[in-house]
Amino acid sequence: TEMTxxxxxxxxxxxxxxxxxxxxxxxIVSNDTxxxxxxxxxxxxxxxxxLGEKPMTDPDTLSYFIKYCKNNYxxxxxxxxxxxxxxxSITGYGYDLKFPKSGSMTLSGINKALxxxxxxxDFVGFDACLMATxxxxxxxxxxxxxxxxxxxxxxxxxxxxxxxxxxLSANTSMPTIEIGKNICxxxxxxxxxxxxxxQTTLSxxxxxxxxxxxxxxxxxxAESISSLITNKDYTTVSTARTGAxxxxxxxxxxxxxxxxxxxxxxxxxxxxLYEALLSAIKYNKTSSNMTNAYGLSIYFxxxxxxxxxxxxxxxxxxxxxxxxxxxxxxFASLNATGQIVTGGSSAGTxxxxxxxxxxAMGGSSNNGAGSSLGSEAVGAIIDSLFSDSSDGTxxxxxxxxxxxxxxxxxxxxxGKVLSNEDLKAYFTDTKNVFDATKLKFTEEDGExxxxxxxxxxxxxxxADKNMYYDDGSGYVDLGYDNLFTFDDAGNMIADxxxxxxxINGQPVAYYHLTTQGxxxxxxxxxxxxxxxxxxxxxxxxxxxxxxxDGFIAGFTLDYTESGDTxxxxxxxxxxxxxDTIDFLCDYWTYSGTFKGSYKLGDQMVVSNDKLTISxxxxxxSNVKITYRFTDIYNRYYWTDAxxx
Length: 644
Known about the structure:
Elements: H1 2-5, E1 15-18, E2 35-40, E3 43-48, H2 59-72, E4 79-84, E5 86-87, H3 88-91, E6 92-93, H4 107-117, E7 121-128, H5 134-140, E8 144-149, H6 162-170, H7 176-194, E9 201-206, H8 207-213, H9 215-230, H10 234-243, E10 246-247, E11 255-257, H11 258-265, H12 268-280, E12 281-286, E13 297-299, H13 308-318, H14 322-341, H15 344-357, H16 375-385, H17 393-400, H18 411-414, H19 420-427, E14 442-444, E15 447-450, H20 454-457, E16 460-470, E17 474-481, E18 484-486, E19 492-494, E20 499-503, E21 506-507, E22 510-517, E23 522-532, E24 535-544, E25 547-557, E26 580-589, E27 594-605, E28 613-617, E29 623-631, E30 636-638, E31 642-643
Parallel strand pairs: 4-7, 7-8, 17-22
Antiparallel strand pairs: 1-2, 2-3, 8-9, 9-12, 10-11, 11-13, 14-15, 15-19, 16-17, 16-29, 17-26, 18-19, 20-21, 20-28, 22-23, 23-24, 23-26, 24-25, 26-27, 29-30, 29-31
Helix pairs in contact: 2-4, 6-7, 8-12, 9-12, 9-14, 10-11, 11-12, 13-14, 16-19
């Protein structure tokens, strides 16, 4: 609709290739076959009515369209825009509802399509999530002058096409940077009007400048990361990674702002890359609630190590710098080893169960392994993990504890830079391993405190209040919030209040996502799991310095089809009159059995009355308050529980 409302001049040909959708929100585009349309005279003119059903994520589909445009509508300037789903560096672009098994079009696939298409574009744009990446930019250099894309997931409305197309038609010699600036401004401004509170980013990258100035500095930066890890300074790298602006956090795709990451590393190589990137990013527009997003992101593993081998394959196929591949393999290898030595993900669950149920679960007083393991036990784990045995059964068992398998963890050995003996020494040094035995509250003057040494606090990435409501049959998990303070001695003081985030007075499961800014100018974003009209979704809650009570910025659908692709849909949208909302929560029985997701409270129906957010006392029943600590290896530990 926005395209048809633009004033398109005769010397601009705007062609659209359609497909991949089971139902279009109009009565023009066919659901049964791929088609090509031309936008003209305020409408859509069909050029090719029946191209057959072909996967939109097949590189041949894209190259066919490029050749069709070039042969039938030759021009002095060409631009290409990808629309809808994006998955970033590893996944690439697209999801076809008709061909779900076809997956996405990886960067390697896009590279093939553009090469076969044979056109050099003024810009290649992604009106899709998460595609403004270093990997995308370096791959595109041979095929375009500029990349226009978003680092973050895009709100459902996507780009706003009317105004920038009209301006381009009025001046077809407009510099590409100016076109890109108009696209960025229109997108962010329209999102601010239509979906207030949803985070937006869009940037314009000069691909030639990036290719000419950044690679050497990027290589040096990668080598500096490898040097830090080889010299047993994993903590510096981990802290820089976890402190960098991260995108699509709930999807765990491990994409962070590269400019922010380079700056956080605190090295001369990082500073040089930082400056080169900022120069090549010619324009960057973000919403006011988005900080440290400078216009170009990159994959850096931390939360989901199972994608490292996929990244390695993608990097090899697009000619990515081998030094960076080596650096992330080394980081991921030490990260995985750290998780395994400290007990793996299963030990994190045991820590939670012991916190909630204590001796009833047969648990010890130790809420996780951490540095409580002796050198002999650590040595046995490392020898087993890096065993040369042919069947690999020992390492498989250890890998499964952190969600990996031997077929998706070649990085573990290819990234190994320390000998077994060095690893044993490293992981028995208390400066490198968090001591979970210290996660016990001390009560002083009615306050509950966690006391850790300065070295131990350096190993903590996050701490979140985790509250469980006792409903008489088990425990309702009310989520996580970053509620705590510190005393003058540096001890953490727990928040033991029984108030929790509520919507229209109904306590809900709330999960804190990000906090940014200062005490005077801040933005806090969290999510609430729900069913919207029966579809699993997340309400997006925003609290900022101008809206201290918070507001609902919209909702995002949980994209369950992603068993076949990790591409993320542009689906953040607003609630509408008549929408039904069922709040969801996780539930544990008294016997320690996880029962999955349950509906929490009564169903709500969106009406003309505003949905209000408040902190509400959860009731007279007991609650258990524990804190989840995350260490530098992304390993979880829970404190003992406070009953209120």
